[in-house]
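Example (one chain per record):
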Amino acid sequence: ALLAVVAVETVLNVARHDGKQGNVDAKIHFAPADNKLDLDLKASEPAGGIIANLLKLPDAPPVDIVVSGTGPLANWNGVGTFVVDRKIVTQLTGRHQLSDKGHYIEAKGDGEFERFLPEKFKSLFAGKTSFDVAGTATNAGGVDIEHATIESGAVHGTATGNVDPKGASDLAVELSAKDKPVTIDVGNSAVPILVAVEKATARAFGDGKAPMVDIGTSLASIAVGGTQLNNVTGQIHSDGFDVENRSGPVSVKLAAAGLKTDVATLAPLVTGTLAADLSGSISRDNVTIDKGTLRSDALNAALTAGVSLADLSMTLKMNADAVSKALPPQISSLLGERVKFSATATRDPQGAFAANSLELTSGSLSASGTASAQGSDIQANVKGTLGDVSALSSLAGTPLAGGVNFALTASGPRWAPDFSVSADSASLTAAGRTVKDIKLSAKGKADIANPQADVSLTGSVEEQPLDIGAS
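Predicted structure:
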């Protein structure tokens, strides 16, 4: 009796009365007792209509929608057409069947969607795009995908498998560029990051609540400003990623055949094949790298890191070993064959950066210190020893011998900080003459427009005192 009561047969005509055109005509025959649904829907709106604005269509063009279907609820078939600006955007056919497992659904269609997508992703759906999906929404609350394909002028994508939050899952997804890599922008208007994708794969399998995850990528290039990575491959793995809480262990492996950059000081350090190997965890609030390595022909580095996603505060610890010749010649001339560097860097919630426990050793040079930056102000404190100054002979234009201790402090606006420099040596020899007990100090302001400094130098030459001052 109740089924007979809820049976519906109606003809609906809706027209706008605000001075604008637009109408909806619908014929609906819903008879649960007879297990039947007949539907005939036609909607039409001019430019600037409600549908176009709800869908945020560019320029709010006129929209027409036609949907029709008939059959028993357990085996219902329907057809839909979506027309924008008097051009067919998509045509869709669908089917619904009831089974012991749940609701089986088929949908296939095609259309041209490029104009309706964000600029960053238009390249993925260039030309005509077709799709074909068949699967079951299971009674257990999961999804069983029999097949799913999408094909555009630029890419081919597939998905198959099942997702069951209460049981076992095994879902595989693949996206491949067709004739050439497809470029998408994953950055923003201030810093575009152009990624040329050849292929991407993903698989989630195991416990439906926390499946194992494998993601693979093959990228022709990644370009940011004047820097470009070429022939990049990536692998991401999780032994159990908690889907609901978006957390779990993660390992990442990246490799690139080469890097081109317009940063002159960086280029020598990243020659040849580049590789990164990172392992840690992610959650809603934090990203943690428990162990990481970075390698190139010139550089070996190990690191750990932690980032808060709420305020982007960060801690980074790094130990690096690099070929000295990869550094600028003004520095490399003072170094041995390789240089070792370590530091702990932090960023606080207000955006202030600090580098603590800075240490550098190479050949006879060793240095340590701290540095920080907050807004436009900087602070630095560095001290060290150069055990053999002969490396400076070419710069001085005369043979040098001996060793020197040095210290530097700086604080204030980065364009004009106050500074203090000191150096001392028990004995230095230049051009055959030896100066003993040398003490050099300089204090002032490093203002490019108006530099200021007070300098003093004391020592002794052939038992005669040396005392020089300047400002």
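Caption: Residues 2-6 form the longest helix (5 residues).
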